[in-house]
Amino acid sequence: MRAVAVGGVVVFHAIPNLLPGGFIGVDVFFVLSGFLITSIIRTEAESDRFSIATFYERRFRRIIPALLAMLIVTSIASLHILPPFELAAYGKSLIGVAAFVSNIIFWSSSGYFDTDSIDKPLLHTWSLAVEEQFYIFWPLIAAFLISKGRPRTLGLFVIGMVVCSLAASIIMVKLAPSQAFYLLPYRAWELGFGALLAVGAVPAIRQPGWRESLACIGLLLIVVPMFLYSEKTPFPGLAAIPPCLGTLLLIHSGQGYSTAIGRTLSLRWILFTGLISYSLYLWHWPILVLSRIALNRPLLPWEAFVALAAAYALGALSLRFVEKPFRGKGTIPLSRRSVLVASASVCILTGAIGLTLWATHGFRAYASPSVQIADAAIRSVNPRRSACHSADGVNQLNDPSRCIGGNSSKGNYSVLLWGDSHADHLMPGMEDLGRLHGFAVRQATVSGCTPLVIASEDGRQAACRKFHQAALAEAAQQPNLKAVVISMRWSTSFPEFTARDRTPAGTAKFKALVVRFEDRVRQIVGHRVKLIFVGSTPEFTFWPATCFARAAQFNRDITTCQRSPARDGYWGEKADGVLSAISLQGTYFVLPRDFMCSTEGCVTYDKGSILYRDDDHLTNAGSRFVTRRLRNLLAAS
C-alpha cells in the first residue's frame, strides 16, 4: 500500500497529466501512519511497556537519518542552482523543516497547486510536519486511556476527533482551501481513520467473501480518484473521504486474512517499492524541482522519467546505507540519549543554516550583477503597497494621507486608482504621471476583490463590496475629482461565471455586468468624471523575473524569458474583446494586451527593464511601461 501511495505521488509530480489525482497518495500515507503508529502504542500500553522517550527515539531513528541525507545533498545543490531570491526562500523552508512546521511555512506563502509552489525543493516536507505535529499529543492521549483500561473511551475519542476534524475540513476547503490543505486540524481525521482500526472501533469482517469484495472496493476507491481528481478538485474535505476510506478497507480486509488484492500487492517489486517509499518520497521532489530550475523550463517526459529513475535508485541506496543502519538496534549502536541528542543537534544545525540563507537574502551580495538585476525585479513592488493595499476581506479604506501620490497637497486628489492587486501594481507609474502633469492620485486597492462586485448581488462578498463602495463615496467628495482609473485581474473577476457562461450568451452577460457597473459608478461620482478602464494584464505560466534570474545564474539565453504566449484563462482575453466593443460617453478603455502582445507572444522585457515580478504582476518598471498609455487621457483632464 505504501508503494501505491508513493507511486501516485511521484507520478503526479513528474507527469501530472498521466495521473492528475496522484496527490491523494499522501492521504493514503496518513491513514497508514495512523494505523501503524496507534497499533504500536496500543500494544505497548496494554503490556505496560509504553514510554514516550522510546516512542520518540523510534520516530527519530525512522525519520531523521534519511531526511538529513536528503537535506545535505539538496542544500549543496541549491547553493549552486538557486538564484538569491529562491535560495532565501529555501533557507526559510529549511527552518520550517528543522522545527517540523514546514506545512505552516508553505501555507503562509502560497497554496500547494500555485505556480510558484512547484519550484520549492522542500515543499513535500509539509506532510512530514503534519504527522510529527499529530504525534506530539496523540501518543500521550492514546497510551493514557489504554493504560487506564478505557479502550471504549479511546474509541469514542477517536470517533469524535475524526468527525470534528472532517467537518472542519469540509467547511474550510470552501472558505480557506490552502489552510485546509496544509494544517493539522483539517488533516487529523485522516490519521484518525487509521487509528479507528488500531483501537478496534471498526467491526470485524468475518466472511471471506466480504473481505474479498471490500478489498476490491478499497483499491478502487484509491486508484479511481487518482485518475479522476485534478488540481481543480476541492481538497481535502469530502473529496478526501474515498481514498481514506479505501485505505481503511484495504487494511481491514487484510488483517489476519490473505485476499487476492493483498497477494497482488505483495509481489516482490511492489514490496520493495513500499520498503523504499519513505526515501523515494524524500528524494523525488528535490530532484524534479532542481532539474526544472537548472534547465529553466518544464522537464520533457523522458527527462522526468530519468529523474524518477534517479530518485528510485537513491531511495534504494538510502534504505540500505542510511535507514537500515539506524532502524531498531541497527548496525550503528546508539543509546537512546545519543539518538535524542543527535536528533536535536541536527534540527538546530539545519535551522541555523536555513536562518543564515534567509538572513543573507540567499547570499545576494555575492551574486553576479545580472543575477542581482533580475533578483531586484522579483522584489520590485509598489512602495506604497504595505500602507495602501489591503488584504482579502478587509472592508475599511486605508488612511488617504498615506496613500496619495504625485503632486499632492492637503489630502485632496483629482485621480482615483481603484481596484485589486492589478491596480496596486500601477501606482508607481501613476505617481510618475502625477508628478509630471501636476495631479494627485489616490490608491484604493484590495487583493482578490474586484470592483465589479458593486454591480453584483453576491452576498458572499459583503466585505469586498463595502470596501469599494467606501472608496467611491470618498472620491465623490473630492471637489476636483477628474478621473477614476479602474484596473482589476479580469481573468478572475467573475467567480459567479461558470464554464456554461463561455458562450455568446455568457459574453453578453459579462458585457451587461460591465455596463451596469459603469452606471453604478456614474450614479456616485457623476458624469463629469472620466472613467478609464485598464484591460487585462497578460498573464503567464511562469515568473518572468525568476526566469531571467535563473538564466543569468547559468549564463543561458533569455529569449524565452523576454516574450511568451499569455496564459491568463478564458476571461482575460475575452474581457478585452468585450471592453473594446463598449461605447459609453466619458468612459475610455486602455488594453495592455494591444501594445504588449503580438502573434509572437507577449513581452516581459523592454529596453533593459524586466516588466513582470511574478506571473501576473508588474514590476515598477512594468507599471511605468503600461501607465504611459494613460498619459494623454490623464493630461487632458
Please tell me the total number of domains.
2
Structural class: alpha/beta
List low-confidence stretches: none
Number of helices, counting only DSSP H or I runs of 4 residues or more: 28
Report the helical percentage: 55-70%
Compute the separation of the termini in Å: 69 Å
Apparent shape: elongated
Give the structure's gist in a few sentences:
This protein is of the alpha/beta class and 637 residues long. The protein is 59% helix and 7% strand. The chain starts with a helix and ends with a helix.
How do the helices and strands line up, and which of them pair or pack?
Layout (H helix, E strand, L loop, with lengths): L1 H13 L10 H22 L5 H30 L2 H15 L3 H8 L16 H22 L3 H25 L1 H6 L5 H11 L9 H21 L12 H13 L6 H5 L3 H8 L1 H19 L5 H23 L12 H24 L9 H10 L6 H4 E2 L13 E3 L8 E5 L1 H4 L2 H11 L2 E7 L15 H15 L6 E5 L16 H22 L4 E5 L9 H10 L5 H4 E2 L4 H12 L6 E4 L1 H5 E2 L2 E3 L1 E2 L2 E2 L9 H8 L3 H6 L1
Parallel strand pairs: 1-4, 3-4, 3-5, 5-6, 6-8
Antiparallel strand pairs: 2-4, 7-10, 9-10, 11-12
Helix pairs in contact: 1-2, 1-13, 1-14, 2-6, 2-9, 2-11, 3-14, 3-15, 3-16, 4-5, 4-16, 5-6, 7-9, 9-11, 10-11, 14-15, 17-23, 20-27, 22-25
Write up what this structure looks like.
With 637 residues, the chain is α/β, with parallel strands linked by helices. The protein has two domains: 2-366, no CATH class; 382-538 and 566-601 and 621-636, Rossmann fold. It has helices at residues 2-14, 25-46, 52-81, 84-98, 102-109, 126-147, 151-175, 177-182, 188-198, 208-228, 241-253, 260-264, 268-275, 277-295, 301-323, 336-359, 369-378, 385-388, 421-424, 427-437, 462-476, 504-525, 544-553, 559-562, 569-580, 592-596, 620-627, 631-636, and strands at residues 389-390, 404-406, 415-419, 440-446, 483-487, 530-534, 563-564, 587-590, 597-598, 601-603, 605-606, 609-610. Strands 1, 2, 3, 4, 5, 6 and 8 form a seven-stranded mixed sheet that branches. Helix 20 (427-437) crosses helix 27 (620-627).
